[in-house]
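Two records follow; treat each independently.
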Amino acid sequence: MTLLNSWRVQTQGPEDMELSASLVLAACVVVLLVFLISRDSGKKYNLPPGPSPLPVIGNLHQLDIKCLFQCFAKLSERYGPVMTVYLGSQRMVVLNGFEAVWEALQDHADEFSGRAHIPIMERLTEGYGLFVSNGERWRQLRRFSLTTLRNYGMGKRSIEEWIQEEARNLVEEFRKNVGSPCDPTFFLSRAVSNVICSMVFGERFEYQDKNFIRLLGLINSTFRLVSSPWTQIYNTFPRVLSCLPGPHNRVLENVKELKAFIAEMIERHKQELKPDSPRDYIDSFLVKIQEEKESPSSEFHDKNMLNSVLNLFLAGTETTSTTLRYGLLLLIKYPHFQDRVQQEIDSVVGRDRPPAMEDRRKMPITDATIHEIQRFADIVPLNIPHKTTRDTSFRGYSIPEGTVVLPVLHSVLYDETQWSSPNSFDPTNFLDENSSFRKNRAFLPFSTGATFHPGLPSHRVELFLFFTTLLQNLSFRSQGDPGKMDATPEVSTFSKVPRRFELIVRSR
């Protein structure tokens, strides 16, 4: 007992002590009743089963925030593939396994197409932009972005030609380090970011550009911070943590600096804009703003443009570069797979010309290996949270409108009913008995349905061209025993990030 508490006991009479105890008890009862009433209000919906939550914290005492996807897998063994979990006071319906996720996102796509409220993202974007918006805003921005990114060619050059050139630049950057241990992180992020910069800004940056390196450092730092347990705690208790110091404030500072850079690029585009010949995504957005300036329902304005560019810049840099980094780690750990891919590249493409997308259909082993890298890396294990757009009947349960729904992608990519060896890195998961490429509906590295990632067409092209160009010209090996390299992720709350590693580059 502290000195202060001892003094309180000594100076309080029996009646005061009884009154204090009664007030504390009454307060506890009120909190409990409010919680139970809020829960009972959902009983009429026949919600899916789940563990019993506690007031205020929900089921947090039963979860490891560092590995939520593993906790959900464990809970689903008891409560089934569709269950209700509370993160704080936030009710969430969690979907585990391919069948449940596919049924929700494909057969009930409209009902599950809403974007859930993510406090940290709302604070970063104020609800504007492509990735956190809902309703008509989301529909307009998504349609525009899909069309623009899928069909864009800057000048007379196609997206494929831009990526081929960037892949050659990446090879030359690696060649500068032949024979010496090097960390591939920023080599890869610079190359990948230059692709999205070409599409969005209409220009690329030199690898040694100090401002470019600074921006990539901010992106890498932001990605790691957003993936940390601290951010999940912030998303659970945003009102409390928004008043406290912590890593979430560093995220805000990083994004503020990134937005300042993007705003400067947008201003330059405004001054140079030629409406009849847009050069890139920003130019196209500016033209769209002019076209719809008289429409009161238009979502094309400066705030949505700034935040949509930020969304694409962040996602377009980090998801692809993280996948490439994971891929190099796995090909170093299992060098026989690297050798098989290089043999196929030599056979189909040779050494005298750059690989092209038309080569992919003749390269089943390479295609299967790239797909298996994405499956095994599982870089977005929890998926982006969805929410129901209306009261929904699903698998005999009634889920109210506005309920957060989490289709766990890890449970799909590692579903034992869909993959012959889900826990091992094995490209034969995508090969049939004739060694031809075999598709699998459970290959959902970035979800499916109405909220499908608009940048995926270029993501697939980048992965194929970067991997094949690198392995056509270079070999990558570990410094020591490759079998001892650790392929487990460093961070795995929202995303998986490979542990930092160094490799040895050799010319072929």
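The next record belongs to a different protein.
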Amino acid sequence: MKPVALFVLPKCSHCDSAKAYFKSKKIRYNLIDVTKNKQALKDCQKHGCKGAPVILIGNTWICGFDKQKINKELGIK
């Protein structure tokens, strides 16, 4: 499976939804709080993402919690 990184903000309901979705699908991911990692925040912004969560699957950046794009990248039906 491709590596998955989840960039989040504290108290973000969409971020919580993404975490719950990954847990329900048993998808392992690296959790990164962009308030504590300024370089990660810059990386997200560089790829055109303005909000949270941001999901990186392999080399593909997904802005926001978009199940359809996540499933496509991970090959989930």
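Discussion point: The chain is about 40% helix and 20% strand. How would you locate this feature using only the token line?
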